[in-house]
Structures are given as C-alpha cells and as structure tokens.
C-alpha cells in the first residue's frame, strides 16, 4: 500500500494537470451551452452511446438479431453497463449519474496509467506531457462522458504498464477486462499475447503463458455469448453488419478522406477534425516505429489503427475510437520535453484551447454522436 501511495504522489502533478485541462474544456462547454440555451448534463450523461449503455443497464440485452439498422444493443460490450448497474445499487442518484461518475473516475485512473507508462519509458517530464496531450485531444470531452473510452483507456494503460514491468498476470487480466469493454479490446489482447509469447524465447514462464491465453478471453467470451444468444456462430458479426461495421480493408476510409480533402468545397468542421486526427495518427505511428517504441505499444496502436482505418462503418466517430491509443502521442511528448519552455507553453496552450473548442463544437454543433 505504501508503494501505491508513493506511486500516486509521483503522478500527482500529471493528475492535477489532467484535471485542469478537462475542467477548462468543461467550462468552455458550459459557457457555449448557456449561450445556446442548451443543457450540459444530457450531453455528458444521457445522450448517444450513453443512452444505449443505460438502456442495457436498465433492461438487459435483446434476444433477437432483427433487421433494423443501428438498433441492436448487442453491439455494445457489457462491462461498463454492468458496472453502472452494480454501483448504482450502492450509491445515491440515478444510473446516469453513476455512469458519468464511473467514466470520470476511470479517466483519472487512465491518466495515472498513461503517466506511469511515459514516466517508466522516458522519465517524469515525458509522463506528465503525455498525460496532458491525452487530456487535450480534440475529442477529449468524451473522457468525461458516459462512454466506455475512459474505462478502456485505463485498462489499456495499466495493462501495457504491467507488460513493460513484467507483471504478466496483471497484464493478461486487464487485457481480458478490456475485451469485455470495447470491440477494440482485441488490440490490447494482441499486444499482451504477442509480447508474452515472444518473451518465452528467453526461457519458459508459466505466468507469461497464462497471460497470453488470458488476454483475449474477455473478447472471445462476449463474441461467443452473442453467438449463443442469437443461435448462430457469426451472431456478433451479424450485429456489426446491422451497424454498418463491416471490414473493407480501408476502402471507405480512403473514400471519405478524398471527399473531405478534395471533393467537398465546404466540408463540415467536425469531419475535417476527424480527418486530420486520422492522418496525424498514421504519421505518429510511423514516428513511433522510427523511435523504436517497445513492442507491446506498437502492436496495440498498430492493431487499433488497423481496426479503425479498415472499417467500412461510419466515419465521424473514428477520432473517438482512437482516443485510447495514447502511445501514439509519445513522439510529440518527447519532442516537447526537449523543446524550450516557451515553445512548450505555446504548444500546450494551443492544444488545450483547441481541445476545448473542438469538444464543445462536437457536443453542441455537430448533429450526430461524437
């Protein structure tokens, strides 16, 4: 316990900085919402995907595939709504309040884990900068919404930290839980499993072998359960087809990139932001490989990018889907750590203000889900 407290004290500056960035974004949202006579609470806790998760917590999953598009709740993984339902029994307030509180609490756990990864690899300054950059992503508001991104990022950060420090059972267990949280949990499972199996070249380790087997278990269990519930082996993938989330190798992504960048003379600002995020993420992955990031980080972000860019599904949420890919920000954090204090201050200020504006625009002007 003393070690945990010492670890938390070391991360305190990063957590304070994280809170400051997110409070700035929340204030910008509140001021803009007030001018538009719009409530803030529904945006944070009850709209879009949050409504789906609350519905699952209240009524459970459907038993049928159906034929309606964008209507089957089996597309949403179970851990977050299960947590909402369980914690709501023990706390006052509505399930919406509970869901939002879980997301915020998990965002701090995620920030702590992100700092731990950055600090472990490159020192405390990089850890703090990596945390601030993650907080200041253009869709950073999602970290404080009733969504699963904060919970998933917390699992990802601490699982990757566990791999980097040789804690195989923690790594496998957290990866398994991530597979019950989001479809992209398979990316974290791949990172843990590949790294654990390769580590066996240095000598047999029962813990590493157990982690390799355990990491994909959560994802496989849920996908298998959906198949059993619907009475067909491809049940989960049939549900995803009803949500237009079929794999097309990136054809839809390329089409939308060309449309936003070259065809549409007046593209929607939010779609421009999504496009820039996708292009920046690809460039950052190249830089991450050039910097020879540790294998588990490269596998995680590589598979995550492959899933997001290769999907034929809707385009506009893809910046949010990449939010857990915090290792992509390591090249930027390293560059800022070596830069002059003035340059660092200007860049971070611009990032925080840009995040506040983009997040508020996403929530109040963009007509669809983030």
Q: What does this protein look like?
A:
With 370 residues, the protein is mostly helical. Helix content is 71%, strand content 0%. It contains 18 helices and no strands. The protein has helices spanning 2-35, 41-45, 49-59, 79-90, 95-122, 124-135, 149-164, 168-178, 185-199, 206-214, 217-230, 235-242, 251-263, 269-290, 295-310, 318-321, 330-338, 341-364. The chain is globular and about 55 Å long. The mean pLDDT is 96. Its main location: endoplasmic reticulum. This is Glycosyltransferase RgtA/B/C/D-like domain-containing protein. Keywords: Endoplasmic reticulum, Glycosyltransferase, GPI-anchor biosynthesis, Membrane, Transferase, Transmembrane, Transmembrane helix. Pathway: Glycolipid biosynthesis; glycosylphosphatidylinositol-anchor biosynthesis. The chain crosses the membrane at residues 12-33, 98-114, 126-144, 208-228, 269-288, 295-315, 321-338, 345-366.
């Amino acid at each position: 316990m003393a070690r945990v407290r010492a670890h938390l004290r070391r991360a305190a500056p990063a957590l304070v900085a994280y809170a400051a960035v997110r409070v700035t974004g929340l204030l910008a949202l509140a001021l803009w919402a007030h001018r538009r006579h719009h409530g803030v609470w529904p945006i944070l806790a009850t709209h879009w995907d949050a409504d789906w998760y609350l519905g699952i917590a209240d009524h459970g999953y459907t038993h049928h595939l159906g034929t309606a598009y964008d209507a089957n709740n089996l597309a949403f993984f179970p851990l977050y709504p299960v947590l909402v339902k369980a914690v709501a029994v023990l706390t006052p307030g509505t399930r919406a309040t509970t869901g939002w509180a879980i997301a915020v609490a998990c965002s701090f756990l995620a920030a702590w884990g992100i700092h731990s990864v950055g600090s472990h690899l490159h020192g405390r300054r990089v850890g703090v900068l990596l945390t601030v950059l993650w907080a200041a992503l253009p869709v950073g508001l999602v970290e404080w919404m009733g969504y699963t991104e904060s919970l998933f990022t917390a699992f990802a950060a601490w699982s990757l930290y566990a791999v980097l420090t040789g804690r195989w059972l923690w790594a496998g267990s957290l990866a398994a839980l991530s597979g019950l949280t989001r479809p992209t949990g398979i990316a974290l499972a791949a990172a843990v499993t590949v790294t654990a199996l390769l580590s066996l070249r240095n000598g047999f380790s029962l813990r590493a072998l157990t982690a390799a087997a355990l990491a994909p278990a959560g994802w496989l269990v849920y996908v298998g359960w959906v198949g059993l519930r619907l009475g067909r082996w491809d049940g989960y993938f049939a549900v995803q087809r009803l949500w237009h989330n079929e794999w097309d190798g990136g054809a839809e992504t390329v089409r939308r990139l060309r449309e936003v960048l070259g065809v549409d003379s007046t593209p929607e600002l939010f779609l421009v932001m999504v496009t820039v995020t996708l292009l920046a993420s690809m460039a950052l992955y190249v830089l991450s490989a050039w910097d020879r990031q540790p294998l588990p980080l490269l596998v995680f972000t590589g598979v995550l990018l492959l899933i997001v860019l290769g999907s034929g599904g809707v385009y506009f949420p893809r910046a949010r889907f990449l939010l857990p890919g915090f290792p992509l920000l390591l090249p930027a954090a390293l560059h800022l750590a070596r830069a002059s204090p003035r340059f660092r201050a200007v860049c971070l200020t611009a990032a925080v203000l840009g995040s506040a504006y983009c997040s508020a625009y996403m929530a109040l002007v963009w007509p669809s889900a983030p």
